[in-house]
Amino acid sequence: MDLSSPQRWSREIFKRTWGLRRGRLLDNHAYSLWTNSMSSVWDELDAAPSLDGLRLPPFVLVGAGAVGNSLAYVLMCLEHPDAYPVLVDDDVYDTSNLNRCCLASHRDLEQEKTAVLASRLAGAGIASFPFSGDLKQFVNDARIGLRADVAEEFGDGLYRMVISCVDRGDGRQDIQGLRPHWLVGGSTLDLQAKTNVYAGDVDAACLGCHNPREVKGEAMRVLERQLRAMSQQERFSFLTEHGLDATSIEEYIQGSHCGHLGRAALLDFVCTPPPQFSVGFVSLGSGVLLAASIFRQLLSGMALPQRSGMTTFNFLNGNLGESALARDPQCQICSNLTVSPDPSLQTDTGLTQVG
Ligand SMILES: [Zn+2]
């Protein structure tokens, strides 16, 4: 992948003309996602084998947000019509998504993310199965319309390949709870795009590691105490300032029988992590790394044993590198495992019930 661009070169020329105030000049501008290496000379990099004839197994894509959009975009560009993504996400598009979701536009506002993504994929000749709901609902749903061979495997609790593009601890724990044979994830952190392979190695992190379930009960009780201590006018101001439905939440606080909507809104509020810096090209980078990780394994004919690991591209300094993520001894899923999970034994359909 050549990340050269006029903007990049103009930035470098600017730095060389005016001198560096901090940081360093960019040494490398060519990258191989086949070997995860970088160079200043494009021709020195290993060329990956051709993707012609490569077949993707059906897979579950959990999270149709920015990184999920980016992965779908890569599949569409590769003209991979035999792919069959099963799309799971319970969200709709709002204006805060549009700067990062590369396949969404203003006409998709308030539309289900999975339905929109399915329609974009269909435009490229790629069939998919969109499901608007969370993973627990998906597992328990009848999944009418799902391709028969895939439905049969899911019915047996067999998830061959699952891709995580979610950013909340609960969602990640639920995905790991499916015990998929092949689990990869894409994420962003500041200006870093990341992809992770979770192969079940004894010392390596699972997707549940470092992603504890949010403690909802206590946070909810604290927020309710704060709200009840306010006057009705103060409460109205606080709720509207935070973009919450003041009417339904007031009904809940007043003990109305119709207050379940208000309770759900409050619960969602306490579970939503604080806003974090995010920018579209980093999400796109994560989708590209994720696709490369999948294709690398497929091109090896699945003969190579999967190895857990993390690949990171840092847009801040142009570095591409691999690292390992150690297991979390407090992990609610893998902390009691002493051996790598045996894929042949992983046929249970249940999500993790921990937490
Ligand atoms: Zn774990």
Automatic annotation (TrEMBL):
Organism: Acidisarcina polymorpha
An example Gene Ontology molecular-function term: ubiquitin-like modifier activating enzyme activity
THIF-type NAD/FAD binding fold domain mapped to chain residues: 59-332
Gene3D superfamilies attached to this UniProt entry: NAD(P)-binding Rossmann-like Domain
Protein name from the UniProt record: THIF-type NAD/FAD binding fold domain-containing protein
Pfam families for this protein: ThiF
InterPro entries: ThiF_NAD_FAD-bd, Ubiquitin-activating_enz
